[in-house]
Specification:
The complex is a heterodimer of chains A (about 260) and B (about 425). Chain A has about 260 residues and is α/β, with parallel strands linked by helices. Chain A has eight helices and eight strands; from the N terminus they run E-H-E-E-H-H-H-H-E-E-H-E-E-E-H-H. A five-stranded mixed beta sheet of chain A has the order 4-5-6-7-8, covered by helices on one side. Chain A has a three-stranded parallel beta sheet with strand order 2-1-3. Chain B has about 425 residues and is α/β, with parallel strands linked by helices. The termini of chain B are far apart. Chain B is built from 15 helices and ten strands. Chain B has two domains: about 290 residues, Aldolase class I (TIM Barrel, Alpha-Beta Barrel), CATH 3.20.20; about 100 residues, no CATH class. In chain B, helix 7 links the parallel strand 7 and strand 8. Classes of the chains: A alpha/beta (about 260), B alpha/beta (about 425). The interface between A and B is large, with 57 and 60 residues.
Chain lengths: ~260, ~425
């Protein structure tokens, strides 16, 4: 067994796949450095992300996969599932070994699983396009925190950039401790050190624009008024808005101001 | 001042909620010049009401003052309700601020008819115009076109709105006479025809000049109230089918009548809205638009009403057992799509994957096919049921027993 230990980045993963082919390694595991435990019976090869090598693998995939197929590969990486490296490597082996459109061979457990994980990530991405709630800070920036099951930020950036082109905004993933900041020109990754007093959810009212509370009250009033009590169906409601997402939703917490 | 605006919003959202359309998809409007918003691509439901309906748009009336007295309408002249009216600026401010916070995809603006149709329509157009031209707002706008308003206003509305809609209200002229004596089908269908004509013309122009302005890029829709008048499901769907065909509508919405006041022409206040019937009508609508069914296959002289027990696809399959079982490894896509318990996604997966090898029952299970239904209607390796082994009533009994056992109560899923 050969262990390819990489830095956890997507570029690193693609570089590792390049090396697996380059070295004609057969029995391998690709492991992120954070999870690597030395094993006396295995050889360790350290992988450093290499743009040229990663690009060659990606270009190779591009030749054989549709845009959806490529997105599915990236989604498997973002899923953070424990066997994602193995799954992506196995999938690549299938793709590179065949001239047919292997991504449609749903009879293969590997292909089906990649498609299903892609679907799962797509659902989560779509939910966060819907459930992100911005609050306007005093300096005008619109701020939202999220805590998604998967690492969806890379999948939602372009949606928010095209939509909110004329306002500054921040979306911060509190579980993964990073966010994106758009300053009306470009997007950059940001990391915050929250002071103990200003943990997410605890921001003081002065942090916010003076009209923020009014729009939250209006939205809560709107949500209540569009409901038709004679048609009440909480089972359907919870199916569409699973309870774990309620914490983002101003309308699900009536009577108290929402602080990201 | 803030209390007053909250109260207005409560009144005018409450009055607009019986209009069920909340679609925000299918427009081609893109963000331009670094403005606010973008309406291309998929619709987004930002939340759902406790009755399970999508909330995608800020759906409000400009005012609930109305000169008409339609029996089914909560805003009718003779109804004793609180009245309110927004100013144009208030609607614009709410839309922009809700949109910036990612609460909504855009605005759905309708109105009671105050003074006359032109006066009302002119206000609706003014809101849309201000959003587009003064605020460079590129989010979704759905405007109600007021029957009786001038062609010029309708034309102008179409330049700012992504969608226009005129509600047909009831499935027949007779019911309209009975419940909305001041309206008639001709007045309602006239603007529909005009919009449909203008949309067709615009699509041709766009083919010639790419930069021709968009006119109602997300198309037009309408709504029919069911359960307030005596029509059969067949009549309702015939009307819908005719509207799809003659006006090229994007959607017909069906709205289960919610009793809002006592009136001897209408179901009693205590009667529950026919939500199951509404669900079956949507299922039928889907079968016509996406599953290649014709109306006569599902509803006809012998079968004027949809089954409440079973969804229309299963009902159809049981009436046509001679067409089953379908061999999923050889049958056409169209026939695979007709197997109960199997939707568009699974059908596509099957057709794509069978090029690589035989699809078995185990595969279907992994694809997410509802085998407890589908297994009676298909053939593939691993299948245990033999052709002709079970009768129509046997299959029906087994499927219903299983459905009861699973949920304890009847579920309302769009696809079954």
């Amino acid at each position: 067994m050969t262990h390819f230990v990489y830095d956890g980045s997507f570029e690193g993963l693609l570089t590792a796949i390049f090396e697996v082919y380059e070295r004609k390694a057969d029995i391998v595991r690709i492991i992120p450095a954070s999870q690597y435990q030395p094993d006396a019976f295995s050889e360790k090869i350290e992988i450093y992300p290499d743009e040229t090598k990663a690009n060659r693998v990606w270009k190779g995939l591009q030749k054989k996969l549709s845009v959806d197929g490529l997105t599915n590969v990236f989604s498997c990486y973002l899923s953070e599932l424990p066997d994602r490296e193995e799954l992506i490597l196995e999938f690549c082996r299938l793709v590179f070994a065949s001239d047919d459109k292997v991504e449609e061979n749903y009879g293969s457990p590997i292909v089906l699983r990649v498609a299903q994980i892609g679907r799962q990530l797509f659902r989560e991405k779509h939910r966060f396009e819907a459930f992100v709630r911005f609050g306007q800070l005093q300096d005008g920036t619109f701020y939202a925190t999220i805590d998604p099951d998967f690492n969806v930020i890379p999948l939602i950036i372009s949606h928010f950039v095209t939509r909110y082109a004329d306002q500054a905004w921040i979306i911060y993933d509190i579980r993964r401790k990073y966010g994106i900041y758009y300053d009306k020109t470009e997007v950059q990754e940001v990391r915050f050190d929250f002071s103990p007093l200003a943990q997410p959810g605890n921001a003081s009212p002065e942090t916010y624009d003076s009209r923020e509370d009014l729009y939250q009250l209006l939205w809560q009033a709107y949500f209540k008024s569009v409901n038709i009590p004679a048609r009440r169906n909480m089972k359907l409601h919870r199916k569409h808005v699973p309870i774990r997402y309620w914490k983002y939703l101003i309308e699900k917490q009536p009577g108290k101001p929402y602080r990201s | 001042m803030s209390d007053r605006i909250i109260q207005k919003l409560e009144i005018l959202a409450d009055a607009a909620k019986y209009d069920v359309s909340c679609s925000s998809s299918g427009s081609k409007r893109e963000n331009k010049n670094k403005g606010l918003g973008d309406a291309k691509g998929m619709g987004i439901c930002h939340t759902y009401t406790e009755d399970g309906r999508c909330v995608s748009l800020l759906k409000i009336l400009l005012t609930n003052y109305c000169i008409y007295d339609c029996a089914y309408c909560v805003t009718r002249r003779s109804n004793d309700v609180q009245r309110a009216a927004f100013t144009v600026e208030e609607v614009v401010d709410l839309t922009i601020n809700f949109y910036r916070r990612n609460y909504i995809e855009g605005l759905f603006l309708s109105s009671g008819i105050f003074k006359d149709p032109d006066y009302t329509m002119e206000r609706l157009v003014r809101v849309a115009k201000k959003l587009r031209t003064e605020h460079n707002f590129n989010g979704y706008i759905h405007l109600k076109s007021i029957p009786g308003a001038s062609d010029e206003l309708m034309q102008e509305a179409g330049l700012y709105a992504d969608r226009l809609s005129v509600n047909i209200e009831l499935p027949s002229e007779q019911s309209l006479k009975q419940l909305a004596p001041e309206k008639n089908t001709a007045d309602i269908e006239k603007p529909m025809a005009a919009i449909s004509q203008a949309i067709r013309q615009n699509r041709n122009e766009i083919q010639v000049f790419k930069k021709a302005p968009l006119f109602v890029p997300a198309g037009q829709s309408t709504q029919m109230i069911v359960g307030a008048s005596p029509e059969s499901d067949w009549q309702v769907m015939q009307k819908a089918d005719q509207l799809y065909k003659s006006f090229g509508l994007k959607r017909v919405y069906y709205s289960a009548y919610v009793p809002v006041m006592e009136d001897n022409r209408l179901p009693a206040l205590s009667s529950a809205p026919p939500v199951l019937r509404e669900n079956r009508l949507y299922q039928t609508d889907w079968l016509l638009r996406f599953y290649g069914f014709s109306l006569e296959e599902i509803l006809n002289q012998q079968h004027p009403d949809l089954s409440t027990e079973m969804d229309p696809k299963l009902t159809w399959a049981l009436r046509n057992l001679h067409l089953f079982p379908v061999d999923i490894n050889t049958a056409d896509y169209e026939m695979i799509l007709r197997i109960p318990g199997l939707g568009v996604k699974s059908a596509k997966k099957i057709v794509a994957a069978r090029r690589f090898g035989k699809i078995t029952l185990e595969h279907l299970q992994k694809f997410g096919v509802m085998l407890n239904r589908a297994k009676y209607f298909l053939n593939c390796p691993g299948q245990r049921y033999q052709l002709g082994e079970l009768s129509e009533s046997d299959i029906k009994r087994r499927i219903l027993a299983q459905a009861e056992g699973r949920s304890g109560s009847r579920q309302l899923n769009l696809f079954g």
